[in-house]
Amino acid sequence: MFSKLYQNCLKLASHKSSKKILAIVAFVESSFFPIPPDIMIVPMVIAKKTDYLKIFAIASIFSALGGLLGYLIGSTFIDLSMNLIQLYGYEERVLNLKNDLINGSGFYVFLAALFLAGFTPLPFKVFTITSGIIGFNIIIFFFICLASRGLRFFVLCYLTYKFGHMFDNLMKKEGTKLFVIAGLIIITFAGVIYFSVK
């Protein structure tokens, strides 16, 4: 089933309404859909290079808005949310995090984890739903989603625009590693700046 969804998303990247479809995929992937919009973004940018900024903007904005849906699911449907979190194996971590936040610790750890989930191939929907479950500040949540997803999709769109099929092949082989390493570097850099200014 997963493979069929993946192939269908790839086909939709060449559809005449691909930008509208990308908006829908980016929106639902942030809350429940298993296929990331990246698989549509790369072929869309290769096919329509001059539209790479438009493609980046659509994916970023709708992914952040979809994050709000994930937040709403987490804050409204607790049992359903915990079942989904359990499916990904994060139930114990979510409960520990909730306790840490109640006790006044864990805020910056979760903030970094949320950013990392938005930027890397970690299951972003788990973190959007978790944010609703723990009652994380919704304004900070939205801007972290927008920044992390925006950064991820900009890097993806720009490098595809610049290097085309060569970058596509690299992403297929090493994409997960590259985004995780880049995300960790960004978090480390931000942490160093924060603690040196503090």
Topology:
Blueprint: H1 2-12, H2 18-29, H3 38-47, H4 52-76, H5 78-87, H6 91-102, H7 107-119, H8 124-134, H9 138-163, H10 165-197
Compact overview of the structure:
By secondary structure, the chain is an all-alpha fold. The protein has helices spanning 2-12, 18-29, 38-47, 52-76, 78-87, 91-102, 107-119, 124-134, 138-163, 165-197.
Structure description:
The protein is mostly helical and 198 residues long. It has one domain (2-10, 17-197). The protein has 10 helices and no strands. α2 runs parallel beside α4 (52-76) and α4 (52-76) crosses α5 (78-87). The longest helix has 33 residues, at 165-197. The mean pLDDT is 79.
Uncertain residue segments: none
- Number-wise, the strands total 0
Oligomer: single chain
Summed up, the helix count is 10
Approximate helicity band: over 70%
Q: Quote the average pLDDT.
A: 79
**Which descriptor suits the 3D outline?**
elongated
- Judged by helices, strands and strand pairing, the structural class is mainly alpha
Q: Tally the structural domains.
A: 1
| Distance N to C terminus | 50 Å
Strand content: under 5%
H and E order: HHHHHHHHHH
Largest sheet: none
Rg from alpha-carbon coordinates: 17 Å
Features:
198 residues; mainly alpha; 0% strand; elongated
